[in-house]
Amino acid sequence: MPKKNLLQISRGIVWIIAVFLFLFCYWERNIQGMFIVILVIFFLNLCFALVKFENRMAYTLFLASFFCFMLGRMSMEFFTKGSVNFYFADDITIHTLISIFISLIFLQLGVELCENRWKNSKPNGISKEYKKELQKYAQILFCIAGIIAIAMNIEQILFVHKYSYVGLFKEFVSNIPRIFQVLGNMYIASFIVFLSTFPSKKDCVFSIVLFSVVTVTILLTGDRGTFVCNFAVLVVYIFWRQYIDHEIWISKKLTIIGIACIPLLLAGMSFFVYIREGVDVGERTVIAQIIRFFKASGNSVDILSYGKEYQEHFPKSFYSFGELIDYVKYNPISQVLFNTVKPKPHTVEYVEIMHSYAHSISYFISPDEYLLGHGRGSSYIAEAYHDFGYIGIGVCNLIYGMFLAGIYKLNKYNPFVIASAFIALRILFYVPRGPMISPISYILNITTVSAMFFLWAITKYQSGVWKYINIKKGE
Question: Who contacts 168 (Cβ-Cβ below 8 Å, separation ≥6)?
Answer without folding.
Answer: 156, 159, 160, 221, 222
